[in-house]
Write a structure and sequence with these properties.
alpha/beta; Rossmann fold; 2 domains; four-stranded parallel beta sheet; three-stranded parallel beta sheet
C-alpha cells in the first residue's frame, strides 16, 4: 500500500528568492522521503492553491504546514481542506521546535550585532489567533535556552510590542527574524529595523539546513501515524 501523499503548504510569496528557497526545502524533503509522493501548494499569492490541489490528490493525504506557528491559515484554511475528505490529516505547524532554535542561533551568529550585550529581539510575523501567541512565546523560550540569554519578542503585525518599540526598549540588541524565507514580512522587518543588523530568514538562499528537512519529515511521520 502506498504511503500517504505529503502536501507541503506554505503561505506563498511574490519574492523570487523566498519562493526559490521554499521550493528548495520541498525538494530536500522529497529526496529524504523517496517512497512518498511530495507535492507543493500555497494558501496565498502563489499557485497551485492548496484548496484546489488537495481534492485532486488520490489516496491518503498528509497536509504539512510550512508555517512557523498556529493561526488562521492552519486552523481555518488547512483544517477546512482536510475536513472535506475522510482520508486527510493536517500535521502540526513547524514551530515551536528546538530545531528551529538551532537554525535561528546559526543565523544570528552571522550578524554584525551577534555579540551585543542584553537580550536578543525575536521578530515574529504575528497573528490575531491566540494560539499563535502561545507558539511565539514557546519559540522565544526555546531560543533563550539555546542561546543562554534573554529573548524579547517583537511582532511585525497584529500584536504589541512592534519591532520599533522593542528596539527602543532594547538598544543595541541583535535581532533574530523568525521567518521561513524572504518576502513581505522580512522586507517589513528591514524597514522597521532602523539600520539594525537583522539575521537572515531560516531559509537564507544557501543550502537548506538539515534541521528544517528533519522537522518537516518528522511532522509528516507523526501525522501519517494517525491513519
Amino acid at each position: 500500500m502506498p504511503r500517504p501523499t505529503l502536501l507541503a503548504v506554505s503561505h506563498g510569496t511574490a519574492d523570487a528568492d523566498g519562493s526559490a528557497a521554499i521550493a528548495a526545502l520541498v525538494a530536500e524533503v522529497r529526496a529524504a522521503l523517496p517512497d512518498v509522493e511530495v507535492r507543493e501548494a500555497f494558501v496565498d499569492v502563489q499557485e497551485p492553491d492548496a484548496a484546489d490541489l488537495a481534492p485532486a490528490i488520490g489516496g491518503q493525504l498528509v497536509i504539512v504546514p510550512l508555517l512557523l506557528s498556529s493561526g488562521f491559515h492552519v486552523h481555518h484554511d488547512l483544517h477546512g481542506i482536510a475536513a472535506k475528505r475522510e482520508d486527510a490529516v493536517v500535521a502540526d505547524p513547524l514551530g515551536p521546535d528546538a530545531r528551529l532554535a538551532d537554525v535561528l542561533a546559526e543565523r544570528l551568529a552571522a550578524t554584525a550585532d551577534a555579540a551585543a550585550d542584553g537580550p536578543v529581539v525575536l521578530a515574529v510575523a504575528g497573528s490575531r489567533d491566540p494560539r499563535s501567541l502561545t507558539d511565539a512565546e514557546g519559540m522565544a523560550s526555546l531560543l533563550a535556552e539555546r542561546l543562554g540569554r534573554d529573548v524579547a519578542l517583537a511582532y511585525l503585525a497584529a500584536r504589541d510590542p512592534d519591532l520599533p518599540t522593542a528596539l527602543r526598549e532594547h538598544p543595541g540588541s541583535p535581532v533574530a527574524t523568525f521567518l521561513l524565507a524572504r518576502g513581505y514580512f522580512y522586507d517589513l522587518a528591514v524597514q522597521q529595523g532602523d539600520g539594525r543588523a537583522l539575521s537572515l530568514p531560516l531559509l537564507d538562499g544557501g543550502p537548506v539546513p538539515q534541521p528544517l528537512v528533519d522537522l518537516v519529515v518528522a511532522r509528516y511521520e507523526d501525522a501519517a501515524a494517525r491513519f
